[in-house]
Design goal:
CATH superfamily of chain B: Glutaredoxin
CATH class of chain B: Alpha Beta
CATH architecture of chain B: 3-Layer(aba) Sandwich
Shape of chain B: globular
Strand content of chain B: 15-25%
Number of helices of chain A: 3
Radius of gyration of chain B: 16 Å
Shape of chain A: elongated
Radius of gyration of chain A: 19 Å
Largest interface: A-B, 56 and 82 residues
Distance between the termini of chain B: 29 Å
Distance between the termini of chain A: 24 Å
Strand order of the largest sheet of chain B: 1-2
Largest sheet of chain A: 2 strands, antiparallel
Order of helices and strands of chain A: HHEEHE
Largest sheet of chain B: 2 strands, parallel
Helix content of chain B: 40-55%
Number of domains of chain B: 1
Oligomer: heterodimer
Strand content of chain A: 5-15%
Order of helices and strands of chain B: HEHEHEHHEEEH
C-alpha cells in the first residue's frame, strides 16, 4: 500500500487540479496556499510542545459519551495522541 | 480522514506494544460519532471541547477571515461543528507520550497537507519504555 503521505499527495494533486470531482476554483486554492504560508511563517509550530516536555493531562468524552482520562490510560501504557481537525 | 484510516491500520500493532491511540478533535459529538462509525474505528475519538487541550499543547490557530468565508461557502461551518463562533483549529499533530507523561515523539506541521507516517509512530513506540 502507498504511504500515507503519497496518498495525501495524490489527493492534493487531484483537489488542486480544478477538475472534477472537486472543481475547486483557482482563487480558492490560492487562498488556501496563502493561509498555510502565513501560518508557517507565524512560527506557531515553535510554540507547540516538544520532545521532553510533560504532556498536559486531559479528561474528555469519547464518541459514546464516556469520560476518558489520560492519567488512567497512561497507567496502562504509552499513548499516541493525534489531533484531528474534523470530519470535513 | 485519511490519517484516521492510516492510524486504524496500525492500531493492532500499537496495542501489541502495550500502547493506545486516542484522537482529539474540537468537533462536537454528533459529528465524531459519524466518523467513528463510517471508518469502523477501534480507538477512541475524544471531544476536545473549545480546544482546551489543543491549547495546552500549543496547537491552536485562528482561521483567517478570507478562508472562513470560503469554507462557509462550501458548507464547512466550523461555528456549528465546534459549537463556538471563533473558527479556531488545531494544527495537525501526533505525539507519543510515555507512561510517565513525558513526550517521546512530536510531529507538528502548520501545513495540514503533511502528516507523519504511521509506521514512524510505531517505530517511536518501540523505542518508548513500556
Amino acid at each position: 500500500m502507498a504511504s500515507l503521505q503519497e496518498r495525501l499527495g495524490d489527493f492534493k494533486k487531484a483537489f488542486e487540479s480544478g477538475a472534477p470531482p472537486y472543481n475547486v476554483p483557482h482563487e480558492a486554492i490560492e487562498m488556501m496556499h496563502r493561509a498555510t504560508a502565513e501560518l508557517k511563517t507565524s512560527w506557531i509550530e515553535g510554540g507547540a510542545l516538544k520532545v521532553g516536555d510533560r504532556a498536559p493531562s486531559f479528561t474528555l468524552f469519547n464518541q459514546d459519551h464516556v469520560q476518558v482520562a489520560s492519567t488512567d490510560l497512561l497507567h496502562e501504557g504509552p499513548l499516541v495522541v493525534s489531533f484531528f481537525r474534523g470530519h470535513w | 480522514m485519511m490519517e484516521l484510516e492510516a492510524l486504524q491500520g496500525i492500531n493492532s500493532e500499537v496495542k501489541a506494544l502495550g500502547a493506545r491511540i486516542v484522537v482529539l478533535t474540537p468537533e462536537v459529538e454528533r459529528y465524531t460519532c459519524g466518523v467513528y462509525k463510517k471508518l469502523n474505528l477501534t480507538f477512541d475519538i475524544l471531544t476536545d471541547r473549545h480546544l482546551k487541550t489543543a491549547e495546552q499543547f500549543g496547537l491552536v490557530f485562528i482561521l483567517p477571515d478570507y478562508l472562513r468565508e470560503l469554507y462557509k461557502s462550501v458548507g464547512i461551518t466550523l461555528d456549528r461543528f465546534h459549537d463556538e463562533t471563533e473558527y479556531r483549529l488545531p494544527m495537525p499533530a501526533r505525539y507519543v507520550i510515555d507512561k510517565e507523561g513525558i513526550i517521546r515523539a512530536a510531529d507538528v506541521n502548520a501545513d495540514y497537507t503533511i502528516r507523519p507516517e504511521p509506521s514512524e509512530t510505531v517505530r517511536q513506540l518501540v523505542l518508548t519504555p513500556q
